[in-house]
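Predict the structure of Methylthioribose-1-phosphate isomerase.
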Amino acid sequence: MANSTSSRSMGTVAMRWHGYRLELLDQRLLPGEEHWITSEDATGVAQCIADMVVRGAPAIGISAAYGVALAARHAGTDDWQGEVERAIDELARSRPTAVNLFWALERMGRVFGACQSLPEAAEQLAAEAVRIHEEDLAANLAMADHALEVMDIQAPMSVLTHCNTGALATGGYGTALGVIRRLHEKQLLERVYADETRPWLQGSRLTAWELTRDEIPVTLNADGAAAAILASGKVKWIVVGADRITANGDVANKIGTYNLAVLARYHSVGFMVVAPSSTVDMALASGAQIPIEEREGTEVREIRGIALAPAGVEVFNPVFDVTPASLIDAIVTEKGAVRNPDLAAMQALFA
Ligand code: MRU
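Done. Here is the predicted structure for Methylthioribose-1-phosphate isomerase.
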């Protein structure tokens, strides 16, 4: 499965596994160019994650798992155990916020720890990476079912989304975008408003691309237009993904998500977070403990080398923010939905 077009999303996939190499669709170049980058070792995969060739919490975790599998497949010295352990460490340093990365590496580490020989490790780690990939796709399909139950809608409606949570960001189908696909499949979707998602433009470059390919009605809007869209009464739900969800139900997601949650509450619009349980980090008590990645100022000052701001102007570029649980109506995972999340409700599902 992991080597095929694994989603029901017009064949859009972020990665192709070939056993001895991993191909990643270079998301930095979309929508202009569909270029695949091949990695044959963990260093290459770690670089692709850090540079955002591949991005989106679940896709980062899956790619990292394949990176560990590659480390074992290509281990060439007597110190094969050290090689794989160093690969896991290197992959863990690639990006800090999405907990799916650490979850996947921990899972790979457990499998590795039980292996007695290099051939066994190579086989077992590859099999585990494929399982992580397949389970993520299955989780996305299950989440879409749970989300529609929570929404409980009878007539077509419009939703607003932020960033990219589709086949490009996951093992296939998508989290929040999977819910949107399912609404469309059931003829319950009027239109998707897609925030462009400054500064990296995941919304305009990736979400609008995926939805257009799949002929799902989409209107692209500047992030600043979200309040006006909500005020117009056109949107019933905001649906977003997550990079890390803490024990009290706080959610780290793409910068600008928190703004949307505040707007949703003001306008009495539903606010739903959709993420696999691999995004839940019950070890952290609250969102204040989540490490928030800051990226280079050039992402804000420039676009593909064209200056958008005075050279050298100081920039603040946190790429995630934390939405407090109190602003979230439902967190939907493949295990079920947590309505009005708080510590007790989260523990009931994820203890
Ligand atoms: O910086 P990115 O593009 O990796 O950020 C992605 C997001 O914030 C997504 O909303 C999140 O990872 C969920 S993807 C299913």
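The CA atoms of residues 338 and 345 lie 6 Å apart.
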